[in-house]
Amino acid sequence: MEKFFIVGCPRSGTTMVQQALNRHSQIVVPPETKFFFSFFGHPVKRQARHVDRINADLGIQLPQPTKQIASLSEGRAYYEDMTRQYVDRHVAKDVVHFGEKTPEHTGLLPSVRRLYPEAKILVLYRDGRDVASSLTRMPWMSPNLYVNFIVWLYYNSIVQEERRAERPNTYFARYEDIVADPKKEFKRILHFLGADYEPAVAAGHGNREGVPEREMAWKSRALQPITNERIGAFRQELTNGEIEILERLGRDALPSLGYPLLTDGERSLSPAFYLHLAYNLARFVGRLPWNSVAKELVSRLFSSVSTARRVSAVVPFAYNAVHARHGAAAPAPQV
Asked: Looking at domain 2-134+162-223, which CATH architecture does it have?
């Protein structure tokens, strides 16, 4: 059975694509497993807790690990067991392709490729201004717009790194292109995956089975037919001042992915702004000792007069700090 992984920043259409591909007669994509983020290579006690979550979300019965699952052979065997059990629940389908969708795996692609070097990787990306605006309404993210844009900048750095690498088993799909012409884009995606196009993929409703009930509050839109109404939603949701600040922070990152700036991107951001950003990042990290987090953030933010270098310095640290809040941190590349 062929494996593929859907990655990308949260609120970039990963659930929408998961739901669409689940409408294909030969594809299944279960709810997020967070296999690499919260299970593989972690201490056995944490692995045992996470298996309970996987079993509940996927409706399967993986055995509790009696020792840490850390080697490639053990990890692959466990993943294959998960795959087999989930596929066995879908007897009405002739499953050929098994997908996995977890945004946090974006920062763990080296681990994904070590376990499944033959797997195909589908990388989704979206305008960071829309992403940041959307993330402020998520209960698991910061309510601060600029903190969420910093998170998008981190994901953008990985997208750019992946594009430069030009790996043959990696495909990049833009959210805006998918929702503007679903048929055209899903034909390309399915060709990449090695599957024939089926009209139901680009049209129709999603299946609640792919979304745990606890996530339905913020993922229910993905169960509706694909629409382009959210393209550029930030223009109505954000003030001109907020857009100007985002474009100053993303002066290079936004155009690099094909998103033109609405302002000149030259607005000067004061030291007070960066201090406030550091404070909100530290609050978001929450679980970590505030003093040490704030000290590290401030030292990185003010290590250079250059705004670009300030952002470049804080993005990897902020991302890892955020993920340490959940008990895991991935090595983050520089912007």
From this structure: 3-Layer(aba) Sandwich (3.40)
